[in-house]
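check this:
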Amino acid sequence: MADINTNTALSGLIAQYGTQEAKAKTGVGNNTAGASTESADGLANQDVFMRLYIEQLKNQDPTKPQDSGDMVSQMAQFSSLERLTKMADEMENLSQSLISSQALTASTLVGRYVYVDQDTAPVAEGNPTMLKTSFADDAVKNELQIINSAGQIVDKFALTDEEFQWDGTDGDGNFVPSGMYTFKATSTNAEGEVTQLNVQTPARINGVTINGSEGSTLNVANYGKLPLSDELDIVG
């Protein structure tokens, strides 16, 4: 048994799975310092495990042979642990693959525009702006007002569709100057009651963060972070 005493991997296995006689002969106990670490290394190698049992069988007391049932039980424990270790490795590989796939998908969104729950958006002179809203069920009339940064209404008109493209002109047909504009949508029912509607405007995706403190997010201009797990409505 001298060879076993000098093999740290075998010592770890003896501490984990060896019989009491084997532990006594090798001077290994359940609380041997460093046994858990070395045991993990030894369990990764089935050859080391089998060498341990061969040595135990060679050095057993002929008058008190090792119980074959104990050996089968211990080998079954080793086999189960080996399968669990392999399963954990496969799950880790799958997790890394999913993260890589998520990062690749998210990277293709950089530079595109996504609808966000925000009624204010930057407008470039001469460029159209896409808008979305949801009409009230009892609405008989829906209206959109476009307001500049000074609070002036530059145009207003009836909405007939929940998704609308504004051409960027005022009530006289002239292009409005570049700047931030607010879009106020309302619904009026048959009784004349007016309800303000939620408006979504497009915002540019400037970057992505994968597995950050808030999870995986899109970094959206003039809006903030948008969870990648949310349902995304990409413009165009």
Notes: Helices lie at 2-5, 8-17, 20-26, 35-43, 46-58, 68-107.
